[in-house]
Design a protein that fits this description.
There is one protein chain. By secondary structure, the chain is α+β, with helices and mostly antiparallel strands. The chain folds into two domains: 3-377, 3-Layer(aba) Sandwich (Rossmann fold); 402-558, Galactose-binding domain-like (Jelly Rolls, Sandwich). 31% of the residues lie in helices and 18% in strands. It has 17 helices and 19 strands. The strands form three sheets. Strands 6, 8, 11, 13, 14, 15 and 18 form a seven-stranded mixed beta sheet that branches. Strands 7, 9, 10, 12, 16, 17 and 19 form a seven-stranded antiparallel beta sheet that branches. A five-stranded parallel beta sheet has the order 2-1-3-4-5, with helices on both faces. A hairpin with a 2-residue loop joins strand 13 (492-497) and strand 14. The longest helix is centred in the middle third of the chain and has 23 residues, at 178-200. The model is unreliable at 188-204 (pLDDT under 50).
């Protein structure tokens, strides 16, 4: 790009920014031009730093009560609002995840009053060594940027009690009054218009946050059909540990070697050991929440056990002492999982600090009954005789049962006699489960039982069976299922991979045909081939009953698209 074009773009952005400040069109321009560039992480470090007020407005518009979780990326990676709702006995509450990467109590104090304005039933607050970490006085520029991003679009009518806990040395660099915030909006508008112009002329494509929610950088717009789901379960990090294991080139050893030593040498996850401004802010958040009439659950999330083994003696003693002090309070609930054996396996982590999918599921099993107990005390109605998912025990969940090895060298069958997990149905599916059957040839089938003519177009509460397997070769594999439906009302299932429902149509995978009998199926209800991309390592297929009575005789993976087991 030449200097003349740069100069013209600067003048165009300047003129439009002036219009933004001086004309009534500012609201329209804010929504159409500025906010998308904020939410997709183009202007600020991460889009989630500016999305909370849109989230609050959305939550306020719902006709359900709310439980809201706040904290760092540890919370964002751990608190699955969708799964917690499924494992909750209430149907009148939604569960929201407002975790922010690198969040600290001092930063979050800015937003606590607007969050409490929606009157949540419960606020789940992360507590950890980082909650007591050191902050400079005045803050680093990076920290000022984060706090000013949290101040951007803060509702004018929200309280400003948080001013009382701010460090006097920080005040001059925070956009606290109207003039300072107007100036920050002008700066944001200028940069947003420059980016928009660059995208328009094809210099910068930006991030696609409108149609996909797989990017941790960005936030879908509030009017997106994805927004509600995003607030309950935002995108997650990939599993670094699994990736390094698959490389088998020493990367994992390096990750746990000098890189871990360097990680522990930073102050980010180390308590300062004194009552500092983070600890003061945490107390401010807790006490203001209690005073507002919302209950508080302090959630201590664990770290990778290998990291904890490398800590210096008493490194987190201040955290332990603080937990003990908070546990003495009768007006809050404390769930400290930092040293809990139920979450002490490396398998529950993606990296040093963040939960893997299994860690997230285990937390759901642990936290859901406790949240329901708190809600019940607030007179929130619960379903009677609700069956919660059991927590995975310490001794038998870290090494999943392996049902086979998948390789591109030849078609691979799974051993159906060795399922990893079987979960019975709940609610309308109560009493229904998957059962293993063995014929005279010692061949195993798994069947939905009993056949009570129950069906559902959702996997919610449906019986689930998982088969985990080891993948030798990263590849796209074609899946074949040998299905045995007793009739046309008992012929369909839903299928998932590693806990995520696969998009094979509204009615899942059908199997009944007019002449009856056993059928091999390789297509979903939408006509798509049953193909899955598998990387090296352990993966799990998940099967949910759609129509009870259905049976599966065989599961087959093939590398060749033309292969067929049908003779």
């Amino acid at each position: 790009m030449n200097t003349e074009i740069d100069f013209k773009k600067w003048w165009i952005a300047s003129i439009i920014s002036l219009i933004l400040v001086l004309t009534p069109s500012s609201i329209f321009i804010e929504e159409i031009i500025i906010k998308p560039e904020l939410h997709d992480g183009s202007i600020v470090e991460l889009g989630r730093y500016t999305f909370v007020y849109d989230a609050i407005e959305h939550i306020e518009e719902q006709d359900t009560s709310s439980v809201i979780s706040i904290g760092s990326s540890k919370v964002r990676e751990a608190f699955n609002g969708e799964e917690i709702k499924k494992n909750s006995a209430t149907r009148s509450v939604d569960f929201y995840n407002l975790g922010l990467a690198a969040d600290l109590p001092y930063f979050r104090s800015i937003q606590i009053e607007p969050i409490l304005d929606v009157n949540p039933e419960l606020l789940v607050i992360e507590i950890g060594p980082n909650s007591f970490s050191q902050l400079k006085s005045p803050l680093r520029n990076q920290d000022f940027d984060r706090m000013n991003a949290l101040l951007y679009n803060r509702p004018i009518n929200s309280g400003d009690f948080y001013h009382n806990i701010l460090d006097v040395n920080d005040l001059s660099s925070l956009n606290l009054n109207w003039n300072e915030r107007l100036s920050s909006r002008t700066d944001a508008s200028f940069e947003a218009f420059e980016l928009t112009i660059a995208e328009f002329v094809g210099e910068d494509e930006g991030w696609d946050c409108d149609n996909v929610i797989s990017n941790v950088r960005c936030v879908p717009p509030p009017d997106s059909s994805h927004f509600h789901t995003y607030l309950q379960y935002p995108p997650q990090f990939s599993n670094t540990l699994e990736y390094y294991r698959s490389l088998d080139d020493g990367s994992l050893e390096e990750f746990y070697g000098t890189r871990l030593d360097n990680y522990l040498s930073t102050p980010n996850h180390q308590p300062e050991g004194i009552y500092n401004k983070n600890h003061l802010a945490l107390d401010f958040i807790i006490n203001l929440t209690i005073d507002s009439g919302t209950d508080v659950l302090l959630l201590g999330l664990p770290y990778n056990p290998i990291l904890k083994e490398r800590l210096e003696p008493n490194a987190w003693q201040y955290y332990n002492e603080s937990i003990e002090t908070y546990s003495l309070r009768e007006d809050i609930t404390v769930l400290d999982l930092m040293w809990d054996p139920l979450l002490s396996s490396e398998e529950y982590f993606n990296d040093y600090t963040h939960f893997s999918r299994n860690g997230e599921r285990q937390l759901t099993r642990i936290i859901s009954p406790l949240i329901d107990d708190i809600l019940a005390q607030r007179d929130v109605s619960l379903l009677p005789n609700f069956e919660y998912l059991e927590t995975w025990s310490v001794e038998n969940t870290f090494e999943p049962i392996i049902s086979g090895n998948v390789s591109k060298l030849s078609p691979s069958f799974l051993n159906l006699s060795q399922p990893t997990n079987i979960f019975s149905g709940r609610s309308d599916w109560s009493g229904s489960t998957w059962e293993l059957e063995t014929n005279e040839l010692v061949e195993t089938t798994f069947r939905s039982s009993p056949n009570n003519d129950i069906s559902s177009n959702e996997i919610f509460d449906s019986p689930q069976i998982d088969y985990c397997f080891n993948v030798n070769d990263t590849f796209d594999y074609y899946l074949w299922l040998e299905m045995n439906p007793p009739d046309g009302r008992s012929d369909s299932i839903y299928i998932g991979l590693d806990g995520e429902l696969l998009p094979f149509g509204r009615r899942g995978i059908q199997s009944f045909e007019a002449d009856g009998g056993i059928r091999w199926r390789d297509e979903g209800d939408n006509g798509d081939r049953l193909v899955v991309t598998l990387t090296q390592g352990i993966h799990c297929l998940n099967f949910w009953v759609r129509e009870d009575g259905i049976a599966i005789n065989n599961i087959l993976f093939a590398e060749n698209e033309e292969y067929s087991p049908v003779r």
